[in-house]
Here is the input.
Amino acid sequence: MTPKFISKLQRKSISRRLGPVRMFAATACAVLLFSALAPFALAQTPTLIVVRAVPAKLKKGETAQALPPLTKADIGEIKLGGKTVEMSDFQPVLKGPHVLQLMVLLDSEEMLGAGGQFEEIKKFFADLPPNVELAVGWLLQGNVKVVQPWTTDRDLAGKALIAKTREQAADPKNDNGNPYQCLRNLAAHWPDGDPSKLRAVLMFTDGITRGNGQAQAGDQLNPDVEGASELLQRTGIVPYPFFWMDPIVADPNRNPGGQLEGQQNFSQLVANTGGAALYEGIFAPGSLTPLLNRLYSTLDSEAVLTVNAPGKPGKEVSLDIKSNRDDIKIFGPDQVTVGNVLPKK
Here is the structure.
């Protein structure tokens, strides 16, 4: 007959006898749980990083001519978030297997093109290799208005370059609304979410922030520029700001700002993003071709590294790359997003 109850002593004895069994079961469960989670804990996410060589003594934010293209042997240790990562692929940015999306932005307050400058830009378009996709848009009221979506048709991209008249440039409706706010808008609404494509923006503007109510001293960072820089890094967009200020102000009542302010903003923008500022002196260039040639040389000198980053896509981490050579430094963004995509909200 089965007893209706068990004494405390009996329960204690049974508990001791089952102890090793329970411990074994718990251990087995832990092993199974770790095995199930291990692929996630050890996940490696391919991440693209665009870099180029600069002279070893180049100061942060200083502009330098592009050096010869990087080679795989030039790349030393790569760290993401302080952890050494493996480089799984090394390719040139131009004429490589990756698509480079180059967004070309014109300032709605400027009359660029009225003097025939668009022919020089069209020539630059025609010289780009087939792996480059082009889009054209305007800096307008704090946003980017895309007038030509991504295309490999150089003629089609060139037709989207339409100069503003003086009346159009002076119209308050065509205020750019702060070039760096426009960049933030572009980064947040990049018109293609494919993380396998490289992203860059060529922005023609004087770079001056007007009407933001913030006085900018020569030794202070512009918070508008800093915010744009951070978001460009997070979304993997490399900026190439091209200094252009109309020789004649479209609206005499508009604050013309100062060339040095705009160029200082450019230097701040590219210092942490891995980009390059395009200007020569403090005035708009008589010809765009020399600076466009410099941009082509810069793109041609860049390489895209594929690294196996620890973790899932969406995590923003610091980047540190050392060169195997003493005469160069590897220049790229300060931060990258694992998988080159923003986390879904």
